[in-house]
Specification:
This protein is an alpha/beta fold and 497 residues long. It has four domains: 42 residues, Up-down Bundle (Monooxygenase); 84 residues, no CATH class; 120 residues, no CATH class; 173 residues, no CATH class. It is built from 20 helices and 20 strands. The termini are far apart.
């Protein structure tokens, strides 16, 4: 009966069968075996965890035909065990999409020990079992369980989409490791930063408050509008800014500063040999990234310099990134203890609030990633001001800005994120209070008072990308109208956290 059926009909029947059923059909007759061996049948492969025992044999036989591979492992058939290794997947020389889920313990670390080139891969998804543990007095980030080494990504030079949890920066991978050093040994390793700081991009950074005021005076002359500007600036709270020290490691991701430093103080050949380290791989074709945080060292403390959303690392890893999704870690609710009477919903709410992404880490994201078009944050919080004083937040629009000075050609929130020069979509999960702030600042136009507040915050917090973003904005000669930019900048509140 099967001998008279067309081969494509048999292949369509086998496409609905599991791998074990296909292998049983292969020994039924020669006709079925011929259908099983058809390359079109193995273009997309989704094996069950039990099929990992003989998956190596299938990859040897049908590896060149596989284009899409999705593997989920658990129990004794985990991905990091001897059942499957990365060199076995490298047999799929034409593989374009790879999805691996079910890593736990040290499985991912063991899986990334071996390396081989896969130039055809375009999409990579790495999913781990729940790993974040939040206790009453401490927490465990689970970085040792869900960290993907950045150096391992060099195996995929043409990668366009990446989904993972933690991106681990090793000491030999990137120059940004110097950001962890809080002190320096010599005075040459310190940059003095104040309102007239020497920036890498220009010989002198002008005072943003005076520049904004001069712009308003030019528009209104010596009339009452200029007097209103001076009165508005005088009404703003003034902080005495002392001279600050900025470690040179914070400037290392910027190529302009490295060139400026090399011209100012050339290093000796012996020092170059001693400090020569492999450079961090660059994924120039990566356009879509979904991740949790960047990890340095053990990464045991959440939202610290060793485990946070470090955009400077992403700027070097994927300079052409267009879509960024900052997720929260996968919380292991089964390992967390609950107070008497506490429901599981309350435990999830507390965990999401603790693991939320601070707005401070997202400042000037458009300056660090010039091609970015959309930013999605699973849960966000406003950490740019004091918890007891909401007026100190950067999301607070100055009350006198709309009436006393000419608005600038950018949205308040768009300028803060550095995306005022492009169409942009911001999707945020936030509380009701933060959602109202985001909507208000997304629709309000920036003012000289806003720019002055941004500049004061950047100097106080030693935030060099925000300073350079503000300088670039004020130096622009041809700017679009503010109403057009407000239409191109869209804020979407996707959920209430």
């Amino acid at each position: 009966m099967t001998s008279v059926l067309p081969l494509d009909v048999l292949c369509n029947c086998l496409a609905c069968c599991s791998l074990s059923e296909r292998l049983r059909c292969a020994v039924a007759s020669r006709r079925w075996q011929e259908a099983v061996l058809e390359p079109c049948l193995w273009g997309s492969l989704t094996p069950d965890p039990e099929d990992l025992l003989f998956l190596n044999v299938l990859l040897d036989r049908f590896g060149p035909s596989i284009r899409c591979l999705k593997i989920t492992g658990h129990g004794p058939n985990r991905l990091g065990s001897s059942a499957l290794s990365f060199p076995q997947l490298a047999k799929c020389i034409h593989l374009e999409s790879l999805s691996l889920s079910g890593f736990r313990g040290r499985d991912l670390e063991n899986f990334c020990q071996s390396r081989c080139q896969m130039p055809a891969l375009r999409s990579l998804v790495i999913e781990c079992d729940p790993y974040f543990n939040l206790g009453s007095f401490s927490h465990n980030t689970g970085a040792h369980m869900a960290s993907l080494p950045i150096s391992w990504l060099a195996c995929f030079p043409n990668l366009e989409r990446l989904v993972c949890d933690y991106l681990k920066v090793e000491a030999s991978d990137t120059e940004a490791e110097a950001c962890d050093a809080e002190t320096t040994d010599s005075e040459d390793e310190v940059v003095w930063l104040d309102h007239n700081a020497d920036l890498p991009d220009a010989s002198r950074a002008a005072s943003f408050g005076s520049a904004a005021s001069a712009d308003a005076v030019d528009a209104g002359g010596d009339g009452p509008e200029a007097e209103h500007v001076e009165g508005a600036e005088a009404s703003l709270p003034r902080r005495t800014m002392s001279t600050l020290e900025l470690p040179i490691g914070a400037l290392s991701p910027h190529r302009e500063y490295r060139e400026h430093r090399e011209q100012r103080e050339p290093r000796k050949e012996s020092q170059k040999v001693q400090s020569s380290e492999p450079e961090q791989p660059q994924l120039k074709k990566l356009r879509d990234l979904s991740f949790v945080a960047v990890v340095r060292g053990s990464g045991s403390t959440w939202h610290s310099s060793h485990c946070r959303c470090d955009l400077s690392v992403l700027a070097h890893l994927a300079p052409g990134l267009e879509h960024l999704f900052v997720r929260g870690p996968s919380v292991a609710l089964g390992r967390m203890s609950r107070r008497p009477g506490q429901r599981i919903e309350g435990l999830i709410r507390v965990s999401r609030h603790f693991c939320s992404t601070g707005l401070r880490d997202l400042l000037a994201v458009g300056y660090l990633l010039p091609s970015l078009r959309s930013l999605k944050v699973e849960v966000a919080k406003d950490d740019t001001g004091h918890s007891w004083d909401s007026s100190g937040s950067l999301l607070t629009v100055p009350a006198a800005s709309a009436a006393s000075s000419r608005p600038l050609h950018a949205s308040h929130l768009a300028l803060l994120l550095g995306v005022h020069d492009r169409p942009f979509l911001l999707s945020v999960g936030a509380s009701d209070v933060l959602a109202s702030k985001l909507r208000r600042t997304g629709n309000a136009a920036a003012s000289p008072a806003s720019v002055s507040a941004f500049h004061s915050f950047a100097v106080a917090e030693q935030h060099l990308p925000l300073l350079q973003c503000l300088q670039k904005f004020l130096e622009q000669k041809d700017q679009k109208e503010s109403k057009d930019l407000q239409q191109e900048f869209e804020v979407d509140i996707v959920e209430a956290a």
